[in-house]
Design goal:
Elements: H1 9-13, H2 21-44, H3 54-103, H4 109-134, H5 139-142, H6 148-156
């Protein structure tokens, strides 16, 4: 059994790997500076900005919460759909592998080589889809699994 150390909550709070903070840092800094400037101006010159009642912010908050709720729900639905499609891809790859192993004779060397090539190409396809979706180069994962002839054809055709 693998036992990992539990990180301190303070470390988790300030972890930047996998966080959205580095991407929104400039916007966050701009809003902070703008808010600080407005607060300082309002403190030193009290009538510089118009007064808004609490009802305005209440209505704005309700509208914003509904908008963010629907947006979060749509995002979750997209994630769930992608998860189902990936699961279906894995299921179909396993089914294809079982059919290849069942229907192609492995009595001679040619049959065994055909089985091996088809199974490896199925695995390579899953790796290629994964890398395509992530926007990373797939060649390190695909190279050991595919036939050199197929790699030459892919490189000549400039496969993404």
């Amino acid at each position: 059994m693998i036992v990992r150390q539990t990180p301190h909550p303070f470390k988790i709070f300030f972890a930047l790997r996998g966080s959205i903070i580095p991407k929104i840092y400039p916007q966050l800094l701009l809003v902070t500076i703008l808010s600080t400037a407005i607060t300082i101006i309002q403190h030193w010159i009290p009538d510089s900005f118009p007064y808004y009642g609490i009802a305005t912010f209440t209505l704005l908050g309700i509208a914003l919460s509904l908008f963010l709720g629907f947006r979060n729900n749509a995002s979750y639905q997209r994630w769930w759909e992608a998860r189902m499609l990936w699961g279906q891809l894995v299921y179909d790859a396993r089914s294809l592998t079982r059919q290849v192993l069942s229907f192609i004779d492995d009595d001679n060397e040619h049959g065994r080589e055909t089985q091996r090539t088809m199974v490896y190409l199925t695995i390579a396809f899953a790796h290629a889809v994964r890398h395509r979706l992530r926007g990373t180069p797939p060649w390190a994962d695909i190279d050991p699994l595919s036939h050199p002839y197929i790699m030459i054809v892919c490189i000549k055709q400039k496969c993404p």
